[in-house]
Design brief:
This protein is an all-beta fold and 242 residues long. It folds into 2 domains: 107 residues, Beta Barrel (Thrombin, subunit H), CATH 2.40.10; 102 residues, Thrombin, subunit H. The chain contains no helices and 19 strands. It has a 4-stranded antiparallel beta sheet, with no helix packed on it. A hairpin with an 8-residue loop joins strand 9 and strand 10. It is globular. Pfam families: FG-GAP_3 (PF13517).
Amino acid sequence: MFLNQTTYATGTSPRSVAIVDVNSDNKPDIIVSNWNSKTVGVLLNNGNGTFLTQTTYTTGTNPGSVAVVDVNSDNKPDIIVTNWNSNNVSVLVNNGSGTFLTKTTYATGSNPISVAVVDVNSDNKPDIIVANTYSNTVGVLLNTGSGTFLTQITYTTGSYPYSVAAVDVNSDNKPDVIVANAGSNTINVLLNTGSGTFLTKTTYATATYPESVAVVDVNDDNKPDIIVANLGSSTVSVLLHC
């Protein structure tokens, strides 16, 4: 059972949300991307489950997917956000008090919409994986070690990749890339070679217009399964790992 909602103002057209303690008080805060305001908003937790008015930080145009991960090894979570119409990702480094430095931007493909931030090359530094919707690629931006990132390496996907996840699906302790392709009614699995590069995609059919993907073991066999939300057919698909 839950109480009635409490609402907090954001920018215009909030698109994506993450919940992470950003100011080291052991209380989770709200980070939201504001699509039409070209900002991310940070709403700090008062400590009793209520939140302060958002503080906003400038992003690129149409910030979409947001992740909050420590990318520069200072034990403070930073903000990573895709910018749909700027064709880049912004990284906003946490200055230690739950406020953030001005964005640093990195080029992506066309119209990045989804981001995952995971160490893919076993150097204990989280890397950026982004779905480039109108390039029909995923881009991998490796972390240099200081919280800055190399130029993306791209891998071909199906049509209109719209959601990306990075999870080890073949039990080699290396995260693989799973992407939902809204335009081709498929998902792709790209296996990690071990050095942060990926093999050519393997394709599996979904229902119509898959727009979101999650990867988790749903049948207790210790193998991650794939769950997809199919916008065009009003269904979810479950692909069990065999």
